[in-house]
Amino acid sequence: LKIKAIALLSIYLSWGLILVGLAHLVHHKKAQAAYGRHIILSPLVRTVPARLAWFLQEMPAFLIPLLLMQLPHKPSTMGKYLLLKTFFLHYFQRTFVYSLLTRGQPFPLGVMVSAGLFCSINGFLQGHYLLHCAQFDDKWSSCFRYNIGLLLFYLGMAINVHSDYILRNLRKPKEIVYKIPTGGLFEYVSGANYLGEIAEWLGYAVATWSLPSISFFIFSFCFLGPRAYYHHRFYQEKFKEYPKSRKALIPFLF
């Protein structure tokens, strides 16, 4: 009974992610997350150093699946491998590598707490489903969908990490300025880092083919897509020499 209740909770959480993502997509003009270049500072806004904020908010998505692996309930072997190869790998990089290298602005405390809450819920959702609910047959690892999904995930992660490297090196340590990024997919889109992360979660959804992973992809697209658009508009307004052929998120299209 308890297992069925938790499985039902996973379904509700998945649909909740989809609805929240779609709501953000519809109302993004009023709901753009106020961090980075979109931050609105005032004496009433408490902030947290960027490195500490990224570390604390990303940690739950890494730690909760790790704790779920320690439960006495025997996990799905394929689910465990998929979790380690994709979701777990991404959040290890975000928690222990990206957070220590970032040169971003301080985070509003409220944004950090909201992001940490999301990572906690999503870490439980993805970890619980792949470890304790997913049923993969013996041929899953040899199927076309699995391999295409993993290929897309790793390609997206490479784009994401490389794009973050480019953005990070536009600044000197302790410098808070914005410059035109060049190189990699930034030659084609303003949100190359977001394109990479969206590709990651699309690949993850294809490889696992489950409601929780698809809901996470939809949420990510609905949140990161508008953010890429606003970054693109920011560059166009700030730099008169900004390349006119460069798109916001999808090369040559949008």
Automatic annotation (TrEMBL):
Enzyme Commission identifier(s): 1.3.1.22
Gene Ontology terms: cellular component: endoplasmic reticulum membrane
Record-linked InterPro entries: 3-oxo-5-alpha-steroid_4-DH (IPR016636), 3-oxo-5_a-steroid_4-DH_C (IPR001104), SRD5A/TECR (IPR039357)
Pfam families from the UniProt entry: Steroid_dh
3-oxo-5-alpha-steroid 4-dehydrogenase C-terminal domain: residues covered: 106-254
Entries under Gene3D superfamilies matching the protein: 1.20.120.1630
Entry keywords, A to Z: Differentiation, Endoplasmic reticulum, Lipid metabolism, Membrane, Microsome, NADP, Oxidoreductase, Sexual differentiation, Transmembrane, Transmembrane helix
Topology in membrane: Multi-pass membrane protein
Gene Ontology molecular functions: 3-oxo-5-alpha-steroid 4-dehydrogenase (NADP+) activity
Transmembrane segments: 7-26, 52-69, 107-131, 143-163, 201-224
Subcellular location: Endoplasmic reticulum membrane; Microsome membrane
Catalytic activity, reaction form: 5alpha-pregnane-3,20-dione + NADP(+) = progesterone + NADPH + H(+); 17beta-hydroxy-5alpha-androstan-3-one + NADP(+) = testosterone + NADPH + H(+); a 3-oxo-5alpha-steroid + NADP(+) = a 3-oxo-Delta(4)-steroid + NADPH + H(+)
Family to which this protein belongs: Belongs to the steroid 5-alpha reductase family.
Biological function: Converts testosterone into 5-alpha-dihydrotestosterone and progesterone or corticosterone into their corresponding 5-alpha-3-oxosteroids. It plays a central role in sexual differentiation and androgen physiology. Converts testosterone (T) into 5-alpha-dihydrotestosterone (DHT) and progesterone or corticosterone into their corresponding 5-alpha-3-oxosteroids. It plays a central role in sexual differentiation and androgen physiology.
Protein's name in the database: 3-oxo-5-alpha-steroid 4-dehydrogenase
Lineage of the species this protein comes from: Eukaryota, Metazoa, Chordata, Craniata, Vertebrata
Gene: SRD5A2
